[in-house]
Amino acid sequence: MYSSMKMKPAGVIGYKVVARFLLLFIMVVNAATINAQDSHPHILVKSQDKQAILEKINKQVWAKKVFDRMKSSVDPYVERHKTDPEWILSRYLMNRVPGKRYTQFFSDEDGTALVRYAGDAPFPTIRVSPHKRPPITKDGYSYKAPSIEELTPYDTSKTMLLQSNAPGGKKEWANPQTFVENINGRINNLALDAAIIYWLTGKEEYAKFAADILTQWAHGASYQNPIEGPCRTGFLSIQTLGDGHYEPMPLIYDFLYDFIRAKKYETTWFEPVFEKIAATMTFRGYVNNNWFAAQAPAMVFAALSLENKQRRDYYLDFYLNKDTVNDQCGHLAMPSVVTKWLTPDGHWKEPGGYHNFPVSSLLISAVAMENNGYNVFGKHPALLQSSYVLLKYSFPNFSAPSIGDTGPVSQSPECLELGMLMAKKYSNPIAAQLTAAMAVMIQKKGYRRDASDYLGLLTYLAEVPTNSTTTYTWPRSGELDFAKCYLQRNGTDRETGLMYLVQGATYNHNHANGMSLELYGAGGVMGIDPGKGITYEAPMHVNYYAQWAAHNTVTAGGISSSVPFFKGGGGTKRMGEIKLAAMEPRAEKEAVSPYCSFTDTRYTDISTKTAQQRTLAIIRTSPTSGYYVDIYRSAHPKSNEYIYHNIGNSLHLLDENRKPIQLTPANFPISKEPLDPPGFRLIQDYKTTGKTPNGVTALFSLNERGDNKYMQVLFGGEHNREFFSGSAPQSGTADLPYRTMPTPTIIARQEGEAWKRPFIAVFEPFNGANNYTVEKIENLDLSPKGDFSAIKVYSKNGSQQIILQSLKADQLQVKDNWKFVGSFGVINTEKGDLKYLYLGEGKEISHGRYSVISNQPAGSANVTINGNKLTVTCNQPTTITVKASSAKTVTLTEKGRKKGLPVTSTKDGISFTLPAVANGVVTIL
Predict the structure, then answer these.
(1) Closest C-alpha to 644, from 522, 535, 769, 513
(2) Residue 133 DSSP class
(3) Residue 327 has what pLDDT?
(4) What is the rounded distance in angstroms from the CA atom of residue 350 to the CA atom of residue 404?
(5) Would residue 842 count as lying in a domain?
(6) CA-CA distances (angstroms) from residue 63 to 195, 545, 744?
(7) For position 635, which CATH number holds?
(8) Inside any domain, residue 211
(9) Which residues form the Heparinase II/III-like C-terminal domain (predicted)?
(10) Concatenated DSSP letters for 250-309?
(11) Number of domains composing the chain
């Protein structure tokens, strides 16, 4: 949302542009034809919609609850306003001291803080937040925002007595910073609720309350000029995004339009103020992130409030058709939004935490435009996709990936509701998918429509359409190309579903994290990406959350970092990007195996020029159990550090017999020059195993609130390897209560290179203290050059999986009774009997009597063996050979159709070739 880019002082040009257009407006206003809208309200609803909304309230329980909540929140203030109208007006934060009723505001060159004030109005003006961030205590804690009741009436102080959120925190005088606009925004929202209630009920006490707040605001704002500074600075906020707190004002005006004229309120102030807002939102802000999109409602609401049709159309044309870009400042029109900022499936090209903010803003403004006769969704159907796309990338508990500068995030019901509304209007075929997605949100995520606000009351469909023919389904795999993010899932049940993602790239709001991993298990995201610090400039964010040590990744030589080194802000951290080498299934393609899937990614750490490679896989062992495989190579000659964080209460390290390992307190070897770029120093309470060649099992426990969940991580042993446990800072993206707890962390440190000696780990989430299924892992083969790995995983039920992974997919690997040519493969046996062969991407996989050979170098196939019947899925023609067989006939049954396959006798047995097939049953007789 924020950019670290420093704007030149020439950013003041943004103010001059705004001023020039305002002057033009004043010159033409007398000559222009003033065309009032036919009736009011008209921005989000029309007067003829009132009856339908009243019926919605009367007939729909959810709508009645929304209305009642709005009414109960504002009623105490409205009641007090009848006898003491100054009470609420005096709490509005304004410049009230004569001589200091400022009209001009000046920021520093970065647009971070106000540095000077000028001018004096004949009436109190609106206080502008003096800083772009919320206040923080000296020890790094946030403050509790005061309630309206706690505010000092007619406050003229530049400080506030604020309550620290630190444990045992006390009240102290502090600069309120963005609390200024937050407080005014709360009062504005009360006024908006009151205005809507007046429109629906006709009760004038609500209108009086809202009108008094509106007119005090408009009177003061009419004397003010946009802040002079770079183009991030706004009209009534130090930055244009903060002007969003004043979005309610055009809506209030719209609902009270007739009332304020009937009651003889002064109305000359409104048109100039709304023009200032429209101009500021049009020509300021940034186009290289989500900033401009987040401003869209303020821009559209203000423009639609202009009664001068010429001026109204002038601004709306910038929303519909014309970009206003000047040195990365300004606004992108809808055609550019779709082509530059939405992926083909509608994901905003920033972390998921930044999807809902700009997309909901675009959707709300588009709904307003549609209500005023403009075709937006019809011309830009990608908006409909953006309304529900985040669900597609979500974990089984509906949380979206936490990559980059983000907090906890999930599919926005508001976006989905607006998408359903517009899909119905245009009879778009996507309506069925949107309805199916909403059914999932309601039935599985527990979304309640009565949790909405005035927007839901006014615009949402009264009832979710029923759809018995379409069921929402998650793809097995996915890809967000801008983030180089690749995901695999197996199962969507909240408790037993498995899903991982690996990601790393340079983009806005990214983190410097190499090939970073997130893992799901036992009902939640366990191997978590931690999100962000309190602010983008807070030391903990700069030195930890945005750096390698906060992520599930590998550092090279203990000094991996972005180039140049990140020093704060919300922009890009330049770390290069990972590259996809192999993957099955590819994004949104059908999987060949019900049990296995994988990704192979490559990366060069640009700060150290270190080559790295990571293979991740899911292996499902039953409908309720399974595990992840991670093979990570890193070639730094000095050292390489494998880092994994898992939410929970505790971490214990166990030896190969599952006995506790006695750990000793230790100092982690932190780089001094440069000083610890990854941020290892922010992890506390280090303990070590000492150097050991043996394997280690890390057992993470989650036992808060009655949980009985675990993650075990089985590491293969290696010479000169040392394991450290530690307590990392809290992960703000975790579910409560783990969000506020330190994050248990393990670091496997390899002295020397870790390319020929890769980090190999098997992760298994499970419920119940002894309900793990994986007993041990064994390294079967590590090639001298480090380009091939083979491990065996032993499970309690007697099954064993041989995991085969190669960097050179065209080279033959042979050992014991198996051979392999490819990127990734799995051989599964149960009590010595072969059960399936999985060829991820490759040419051949063989074990015992059976061989699976693709006719393409990067073919994919899965063959399940059950006596003389094979169940086969393959993406290309595939040959199967069976040793010690003299069968004469082979038949393939697919989708109820049978056909014979030619059988070739070999010196060892038989072979036959299948076409590409999905769940075909081969019978050998």
Answers:
(1) 513
(2) S
(3) 84
(4) 8
(5) no
(6) 17, 41, 44
(7) 2.70.98.70
(8) no
(9) 507-585
(10) HHHHHHHHHHHHHTT---TTHHHHHHHHHHHHHHSSBSSSSHHHHTHHHHHHHHHT-SBH
(11) 1
